[in-house]
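Severity: low
Component: inverse-folding endpoint
Summary: output formatting inconsistent between runs
Steps to reproduce: submit the following structure tokens with default settings.
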């Protein structure tokens, strides 16, 4: 059976230097680097590196930094120089200023940290990743001799240049697998063994930090005969936070949407959208279906909010606080299919939220599943202007109609 790539939302965001620090700790070869949060420290770091060439990188989570623009007037969030003395001046035009790239909001993102690193020449770029694959019931290595570019584009245009190795979770990466992948990536002679060693170390890191993906693009070869991980992205399993406290403490939430950050505190998955009908749903699949059916009936969802399984009344209350704080919201649609979720808990949370928050917008509720009759009794006897719906289609129609009547 072919292995298909499974992607997941990355809730923990690490800056480039943080990912490289984790790699260093696992013996993976990266460029020498220092981190600075003020221009004098950046200048000292450049001198301390004593390198032939230095690269100064603004540390933000968005891509496209090299072609970005600062509101200080400086162009580019990545600068190369052979003169360490100019690093302080460059850093002074980065730190404290906003960098706008194709992936940031229009106003850009404030740069609070820069990475000062040794610049190395790359004679050849390859792509390498380890990721969890549901179809293969475990981790898979994916590699290509064509790195430094969008791997999806390579897979589309030259699928024969994509190589995969399924990893036995009990055995780990075998020597023959690591060497075969290194050879497929185009490493030759002593570099083949060196690349295989880096591959095994990357797998050690993958296990050590409970990653769902470790992606290196490019995994490069230098003129001096070194295999170096030049850029990396690490995705983590949220469920492992309890045993990866040091890693999760590194998470940078300053660039995240404040509402998403607040939602995460209550174990709610929230994504803001552009519509005016707020969605309150349990389960990501049901949440997406709810958004689609609202759209089908002529409405526009204001958000994607997944309540999850082990829900408490407090979470319901906090979810309503988030939804009602959005000025675009003109109606709320609650769509709960209770398997794990007890519908009565949802109903109690809804009535409490409606009273304490003095809900001003129409509320349409569809409940089905565990303890649903008790939940419906709670809602009907609450005396609150809650519109009951028979099913999802009925709920979407009523939510759209509630806005149309306003």
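Observed output (run 2 of 3):
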């Amino acid at each position: 059976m072919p292995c298909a790539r499974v992607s997941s939302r990355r809730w923990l965001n690490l800056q480039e230097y943080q990912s490289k620090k984790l790699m260093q700790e696992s013996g993976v070869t990266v460029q020498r680097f220092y981190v600075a949060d003020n221009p004098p420290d950046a200048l000292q770091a450049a001198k301390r590196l004593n390198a032939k060439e230095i690269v100064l990188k603004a540390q933000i989570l968005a891509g496209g930094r090299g072609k970005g623009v600062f509101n200080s007037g400086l162009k580019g969030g990545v600068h190369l120089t052979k003169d360490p003395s100019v690093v302080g001046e460059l850093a002074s035009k980065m730190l404290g200023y906003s960098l706008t790239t194709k992936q940031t909001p229009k106003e850009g993102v404030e740069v609070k940290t820069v990475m000062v690193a040794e610049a190395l020449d790359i004679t050849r770029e390859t792509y390498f990743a380890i990721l969890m694959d549901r179809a293969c019931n475990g981790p898979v290595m994916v590699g290509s001799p064509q790195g430094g570019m969008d791997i999806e584009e390579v897979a589309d245009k030259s699928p024969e240049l994509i190589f995969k190795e399924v990893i036995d979770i009990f055995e780990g990466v075998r020597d023959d697998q690591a060497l075969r992948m290194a050879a497929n990536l185009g490493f030759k002679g002593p570099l083949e063994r060196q690349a295989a060693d880096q591959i095994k170390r990357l797998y050690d890191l993958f296990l050590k930090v409970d990653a769902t993906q470790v992606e290196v693009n490019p995994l490069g070869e230098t003129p001096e005969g070194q295999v170096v991980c030049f850029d990396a992205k690490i995705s983590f399993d949220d469920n492992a936070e309890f045993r990866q406290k040091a890693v999760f403490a590194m998470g940078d939430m300053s660039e995240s949407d404040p509402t998403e950050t607040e939602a995460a505190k209550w174990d709610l998955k929230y994504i803001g959208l552009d519509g005016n009908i707020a969605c309150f749903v349990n389960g990501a699949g049901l949440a997406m279906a709810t958004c689609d059916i609202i759209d089908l009936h002529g409405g526009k969802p204001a958000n994607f909010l997944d309540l999850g399984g082990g829900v408490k009344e407090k979470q319901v209350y906090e979810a309503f606080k988030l939804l009602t704080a959005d000025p675009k919201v003109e109606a709320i649609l609650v769509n709960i299919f209770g398997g794990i979720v007890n519908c009565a808990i949802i109903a109690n949370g809804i009535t409490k939220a409606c009273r304490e928050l003095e809900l001003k917008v129409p509320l349409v509720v569809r409940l089905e599943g565990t303890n649903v009759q008790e939940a419906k009794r709670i809602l009907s006897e609450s005396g609150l202007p809650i519109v009951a719906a028979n099913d999802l289609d009925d709920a979407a129609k009523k939510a759209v109609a509630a806005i149309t009547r306003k």
